[in-house]
Amino acid sequence: MYGSLFLTLGALHLVALASPGPDVALILRSCQHRPLAVGAALGISLAILLHAILSLTGISLLIASAPLLFVVVKLAGALYLGKMAWGALKSVRQNAPAEITASAAAEGDLLRGMRQGIATNLLNPKALLFFMGMLAAMVTPEVEMGTRLLLALELFALSLVWFLLLAWGLTTGRARRLITGAQRTVNLITGLLFGAVSLSILWSLLPLAP
Q1: What is the DSSP secondary-structure string of 39-95?
Q2: Which residues does 147 contact at the CB level (< 8 Å), separation at least 6?
Q3: Backbone phi, then psi, for 53, in 5-degree steps?
Q4: I need a labelling partner for 127 at 20 to 30 A (CA). Which of 10, 69, 134, 143 fits?
Q5: Which residue has the higher pLDDT, 166 or 174?
Q6: What sign does the CA torsion over 65, 66, 67, 72 have?
Q7: Rounded to an integer, what distance in angstroms lies between the CA atom of residue 104 and that of residue 35?
Q8: Closest of 148, 171, 194 to residue 38, by C-alpha
Q9: pLDDT band at 104 (very low <50, low <70, confident <90, very high)
């Protein structure tokens, strides 16, 4: 009955996953340690699952409709992504792996990656608005809760497969050697990407911003 809904939503989500953004940048920054990259993939996917559930149950709409709460969410996301940008850009001058990989072994690569992945996606208000808009436009009120949960699981599964493949591919021996040789460029690109998203969120908080 809802076959076309699952297919359309899945296709749109795959297009969004393939687009450059903070999630892809995090995987790229984590690629010197496979467990770290795999953990980041798991964390991002879990955050996407939570975004989907919040949107499909209407909680995201409540957050976005509460001006003060949404400002807090935006500010937290901007500050966190700004911190990630600073760490990456600071590493450009040092010509060394970003700070996220420097102490990963001491704290546990997999768990550290999961924490970074969850925070990067969950604290990004643009992700909240994306899922809220996409799901609100496609999932009508007539769709029962069981189907909504299956849609959320579909988005989680697609995200997990995509980011695990990306993490695995970027942590092969050849890929690591190539990225290590261009570490300064990698740090610069990821830092600028995190910074651009952070600044765009801060801009949206200004009184004159649209």
Answers
A1: HHHHHHHHHHHHHHHHHHTTHHHHHHHSHHHHHHHHHHHHHHHHHHHHHHHHHHHHT
A2: 2
A3: -65, -45
A4: 143
A5: 166
A6: negative
A7: 10
A8: 171
A9: very low
Q: How many CB atoms lie within 10 A of CB 143?
A: 17
CB 179 within 8 A of CB 91: no
Q: Are 135 and 89 in contact (CB under 8 A)?
A: no
Amino acid at 193: L
- Would the CA dihedral through 79, 85, 88, 90 be positive or negative? negative
Express each pLDDT in 13-58 by its tens digit.
Answer: 998 888 888 899 899 888 878 899 999 999 999 999 999 998 888 8
Ranked by mean pLDDT, the top range of 2-6, 8-12, 135-139, 177-181 is: 8-12
CA-to-CA distance for 197 and 176, rounded, in angstroms?
A: 26
Return all residues near 196 (Cβ < 8 A) that are at least 6 apart: none
Domain ranges of the chain: 2-95+106-205
First to last CA, the chain: 40
Does the predicted model carry a pTM greater than 0.85?
A: no
Count the Cβ atoms, other than its own, within 10 Å of residue 140. Answer: 8
For a pLDDT cut of 90, what percent of the chain falls above it? 24
Whether the Cβ atoms of residue 135 and residue 5 lie closer than 8 Å to each other: no
Residues above pLDDT 70, as percent of the chain: 89
